[in-house]
Amino acid sequence: MALAIRDVREHDLDAVLALNNAAGRSILALDAAQLRYFYERAEYFRVAEIDGQLAGFLMALRDGGNYDSPNYRWFSDHYESFVYIDRIVIGNAFRRHGLGRILYCDVTSYAEVRVPLLTCEVFLEPRDDVVVLFHGTYGFQEVGQQRMGDSGPQVSLLAKDLPSYAYVRETWLENGGLPDEPWLAERELPVPATSLPTSQPRRLAGERRP
């Protein structure tokens, strides 16, 4: 089995959209315009590919954006610097093989050299104890709860401290920046050509399933 974790490419978007919308009620559905919004703006957007087949993906955004998700806004109101995991989706045929942990390790590697905190949320309605346990064993702690909108689900807002960041900041970020290494490179964002239609709800945040 050949596994590759790489930045999403434009030709992946149809497969990503299908994977997202087949994930069930624990993942909020997207349309093509909403997915392109992430493609054009998400600092971290990587796919897991097994033997050439798209098996899963993870999308995350940095602080300071204009993303109109109530959960992203909650973290923006409470923390100055963070990476926010919007959603992770693993295809049905590839679940229970550790891909969720692999993608979480990868996004942690991305985040810990840039910010002190990795954040996300999990749905409490319906509650999935496997998901809650996954995040607890990976070092996340609850820092708050809120309801998504007037009638949306209750969510647990989670954060994970990244202790490596202080060393990276003092050693590199405050002294010229990160080394010029491929694994440290930023994702090259395409020039934004779209925005979310005003008639569409902009609440895009999705709960994650390992």
From TrEMBL:
Keywords: Acyltransferase, Transferase
UniProt-listed Pfam families: Acetyltransf_1
Annotated ranges, domain N-acetyltransferase: 3-163
Gene3D superfamilies: 3.40.630.30
Family annotation (InterPro entries): Acyl_CoA_acyltransferase, GNAT_dom
Keyword Acyltransferase: yes
Gene Ontology molecular function: acyltransferase activity
Domain of life: Bacteria
Annotated region (Disordered), positions in chain: 189-210
The keyword Glycoprotein belongs to this UniProt entry's keyword annotation: no
Enzyme Commission number(s): 2.3.1.-
Name recorded for this polypeptide: GNAT family N-acetyltransferase
Taxonomic classification: Bacteria, Pseudomonadati, Pseudomonadota, Gammaproteobacteria, Lysobacterales
